[in-house]
């Protein structure tokens, strides 16, 4: 088995350096401000990593937003979210992370999530455990859904189907009941909460590979379970994820939540007026027929 520890250590050092980027140039609007910062951090990361590993490929949120093709091949690939929690960043809500995963042959070899405001560095390497600031991490191991804190995200979708599915899923979980439902505004940190036992599960439909790839391996290496939202095999490009403290909890959540259609990350972007757009919003075929069987 190839040893990617050198890449992991380099990834950790660039994530910490990029997380020190504190100076924020004031621009005309919060959207401009944050776009500039996101792009700047992604450039810092990609430029440092590609100088050291010129053969490696990248999937970066901001590069994809700028029109770059999103394609996960068998080549060593860094999957980067330069700022996970952009809305938090704008509002100074204190959960903002740099998320970096590294995949070879489409398998994630390691993941790094640097929660910058908290100064918490999560990392995991395949088969070698998960760590927070160097200390081993473990999920809670909780198996009883009625004793769980479950994390999800509100996400960016605002169409009726997405919103009604999202709210009814929270409703169903609260009625089980679970102990509580939380949303921190960054999928990467949400999932790391599962890895460290602060929460017992996370689920969402609609996040992108750069939001969840790094934290998925961190949860697994912390002893947790990562599945599709139907309880099946997790595919990092599918935008559907449950991360849980145990299979029992993952399966229970899969039984309860209803899916809604979502374009895969590796699907060709929608055509708009004859031009490719970077739009990867949830849209597509209607719900699967078995969705009607889900628990209310
Ligand atoms: O866009 P960023 O901040 O990288 O990612 C965030 C999503 O946009 C947002 O919809 C979601 O709620 C948040 O958790 C996610 O990490
Ligand atoms: Mg993100
Ligand atoms: Mg981002």
TrEMBL record:
The keyword Magnesium applies. Pathway: Polyol metabolism; myo-inositol biosynthesis; myo-inositol from D-glucose 6-phosphate: step 2/2. Its cofactor is Mg(2+). Keywords: Hydrolase, Magnesium, Metal-binding. GO terms for biological process: inositol biosynthetic process; phosphatidylinositol phosphate biosynthetic process; signal transduction. It holds the Pfam family Inositol_P. Belongs to the inositol monophosphatase superfamily. PANTHER family: INOSITOL MONOPHOSPHATASE, INOSITOL-1-MONOPHOSPHATASE. Coiled coil: none annotated. Mg(2+) binds at residues 61, 81, 83-84, 211. It catalyses: a myo-inositol phosphate + H2O = myo-inositol + phosphate. Residues 264-296 are annotated as: Disordered. One of its GO terms (molecular function) is metal ion binding. Its EC number is 3.1.3.25. Residues 278-296 have a biased composition (Basic and acidic residues). Gene3D superfamilies: 3.40.190.80, Fructose-1,6-Bisphosphatase, subunit A, domain 1. This is Inositol-1-monophosphatase. It is an enzyme of class 3 (hydrolase).
